[in-house]
Amino acid sequence: MTATPLREELDAPFQSTLVELYELDMKPLISGLQFKSGRLYDPIRFDPDSGQQIVSPGTTPAGVSALRELDPDYPADIDGPYKFTQPSSATPLDALRYLRFCNDRNEKGEPVVFARKKYLPYPIKVEGFAVTGAGKLPRPTMTLANVTGVLTALSGSYDDLLGARLRRVRTFARFLDAVNFNAGNPEADPNSRLPDEIWVVDRKVTENRMYVQFELASMLDLEGVQVPRRKIVANSCTWRYRSEECGYAKLPGDAGFVPYGTDDLPVPNYAALPRDEQGRLDICGHRVASCKLRFGASAVLPYGGFPGANLYSR
To answer: Is the Cβ–Cβ distance between 134 and 155 less than 8 Å?
Structure first.
C-alpha cells in the first residue's frame, strides 16, 4: 500500500514546519446583510457557481440580486473575502463572511496561501486543544490582538461573535501553495493536511485595548445540541462534493489531479481535454472508494456516510 505524502511527512525523522491556520466563519451570525439603501441580502444563499447572491424573499423586487466582486488584493485563483455590490451601484455590503488568520508569513514575506485561500498575518493565539481523561471536552481559548480596534468593532456588530465557527487547519510547510515560495513548490498539495477541527465561539472572556479573548466550545458541547444531528446513511456520502465538509480541493493542473466519473473510473483521455472540461467531468460517486481515489487508500477520509451502519441492521 502506497503511503500518502502526509503519512510520509508524519513518519519522517525530520519534519518540515507545522503551519497552523485559522478561519473564522461568520455565516451563522449573518441572517441578512444590509446595503446603505436599506435592502437586505442573504449571504447564506450565495450561489458560487453563478456568482450571484440570491435575494431574501420580499425585501427587493423580483429578479434583483447582488453580484460578488473580486478583491484586487486576491488573484482570481485565490479565495478572498466575500464582497458584494448591488447591480448599477457602487455601494458594497457592510460585512464579510470569512476572516482568515495566521501568525506567520511565507517565504516572500507575504500572507500564507494554502488551498488557494489567503491567511492574513495577524497576532492570534489559540490554545487548550488537549484532550484529557477527565471526561470533559476541552474549552480552548482564542486570543486576538485588538490594537487597531477591529475586534471591538466586529464584536459590537455581531453580538460578541457568539456562534461564529473557527476552523483550525494544520499542514506542513512543504505542502503550501507554490505562490508562497520564490522558486515555486512542486509538492504543493491542498489535501495534505491533518483533519480540520471546527470550534464554536461560546463566550467572550476579556476585551481591552490590547486584545480580545474568546472561549471556544466543541460542536457537541453546546446547550440544546442533540446527537445524531443527521441521518445515518450506510453506503452513500451525504457531503456535497468539494464542500467544506468534503474538503477535496485539487483542481485540473494540480499535481496528482485525476478526474473520475460516478463509476470511480478515470475519464478517458482526460489529459487531452481542456482544464474546464476536466473539472466538469470530475464527479464524485459518493462511495468510500470514491473518497480513497482522491485522498489516498491509507488517508483519514472525510467520508460523510456511515459504512458500518448496516452491520447492525435487523
So the answer is: no
The edge-to-edge listing of strands for the beta sheet with 211-218 is 112-114, 117-121, 98-102, 18-25, 165-172, 194-207, 211-218, 141-145, 124-127
Specify which residues 204 forms β-bridges with. Answer: 214
Question: Which is it for strands 117-121 and 98-102: parallel, antiparallel or unpaired?
Answer: parallel
Distance CA 272, CA 281 (A): 13
What pLDDT digit, counting tens, does each position of 166-220 carry? 899 999 999 999 999 999 899 898 888 888 888 888 889 999 889 999 999 887 6
* Contact assessment for residue 16 and residue 9, using Cβ atoms and an 8 Å cutoff: yes
Q: At 114, phi and psi to the nearest 5?
A: -140, 135
Model-level pTM?
A: 0.65
Determine the Cα–Cα distance for residues 108 and 99; give it in Å rounded to an integer: 22
Kindly report the average pLDDT of the chain as a whole number.
75
Q: Which of 179, 11, 2, 190 is closest to 105 using CA atoms?
A: 179
